[in-house]
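[Meeting: bench + compute handoff]

Bench side (C.D.) handed over the final construct sequence. Compute side (W.E.) agreed to return the predicted structure before the next meeting so the bench team could plan truncations. Sequence as handed over:
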Amino acid sequence: MSREVFVDAKDHEPGSLRVEIPVPRIADASDDGVDHLVPALGQHTDEVLEELSLPLVEIADLETSTFSSNSSIKELISMFDNLIVLHVTISAAIVIALILVAHLDPTISLILGSIYLGFTGGLGASGTVESITSGFGSTMADLGLLIGFGTLLGSLLVSTGELQRMVRSLLRLTGIRRFPYAFGTALGTVFPSVFSDVLYVLASPVVREAAKNGGDRALPRTATAMVAGAVVGLGLMVPGVACVAIAGIFDVPLGTMLLHGIVLAPLTVIVTTFVAAWLTGKMWRVERDLEPNDVIGLAEEKSDVDFVSTVAVGARTQFSQSIVLVAILLPVTLMIAGTVLQVTSLPTPPVMDLLSSPTVALLIGALVAYVFARRRLGRVEVGKVVNEAFSRAGSILLVTGAGGVYGSVIASTDIASALGSWFTGASTTSAVAIVLLAWTVAALAHLGIGSITVAAITAAGIVSPLISASEVAAVVVALAVGAGSLFAIHVSSNAFWLVRSLLGLSTSGALKIVTLTSSVASVAALAFVILLTLAY
């Protein structure tokens, strides 16, 4: 440096440190250099204590006391971290208890749980309110239109009746043996935009029809495929509501989620259908697992369309089914194309950026379905369908937004640093441990709450800090949460009772078809996610 303004001085730790020399004084301009830096804190403590004639034993006691104080501080920090984790756990328990025991609306329950965590997590009144409002706003910005357009698309296609005809054509094409695998895979990959309850209503007549043509074991075999496809499409495949919500909370691009889901969903459905159908077939007893009146009904009921025998399919029906396929597959194709262009770093036209964005892609699919439904049903009927679809989407949006609030409050606490200390230096083994933890949290949440979507949103809010505290890919943890949220649909879920009624099952039969199948699907998906973790 010019004029030797900076010089290298001795230091006890780095050995040498470049520092600025003191400004020379006129009265003492001879000593303008730097011999050494100031001593380190406590560097001469022992010498000073010896000069004070303090016995060596007492000096050792003081050093031990100082070390104990530092250890106590570390213990207090660890205790505080554990308290944060405890309060997050308590808040989750509050949400589950309010929904399951008090039968309070999930939206209100999630907000109350967020308020508790905000105060106990050290955010204070203003910080809690700010986190709640910002969490809801950001969630709606990310997911609001996606959920609205996805729900509209499914409702419009159901209203035309073409989805049922398409599924029936699938049975004619595949045959009764292979039909459950094709049926479940189609529900899980092609129809995830359809609201799950509507999907059960749509698919149940097909299951019952298949049962009349395939013997006693045809009903459980096809029913397990229906449940597997519906739950996997909801939790692991874009644009399933739970899958989209999880992706938003973990900040995973929907295109990335879609590419993983295209591989994971059909594999999970096929494995689940095979395992669950085999297990239910071993345990199935017609006289015990079907309602008494329905045993006769399955043998005698007549379908309005006999899709196993010859059915005249005119040019109009073929054209209608082609339009339905376009409405469903076009958004998926656009999103995949956009993701492929990003991954391959190929030049992307601005118009493709627009069309491949999930919001615009789903809007295009909804517009295709709207035009088709309006030509088929008329303006007045389509208007009713649209109103019902947006009414259903409103309740989904409130729950999703409340889940975003809960996740925002959790993120505002020190849970990230607390969990980060638990998972410091994450290796392949700890990555698998994080996946197992994410799956377990979601599975427990679903066991308590009874809703796949709400459980997924709740678990995602709890687990999302793990992303910043480890090197595990966000999409892997998101898929683990989605897999866990499918676990054990049981009596606390409206889907359990809906499927039971639609298929004419007894409670025993519903436990075998719904609870067992969803549990197998959850475990199978977990196995594939763990394999994916090892591949990353």
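W.E. noted at the follow-up: The longest strand covers residues 6-11. C.D. will use this when planning the next construct.
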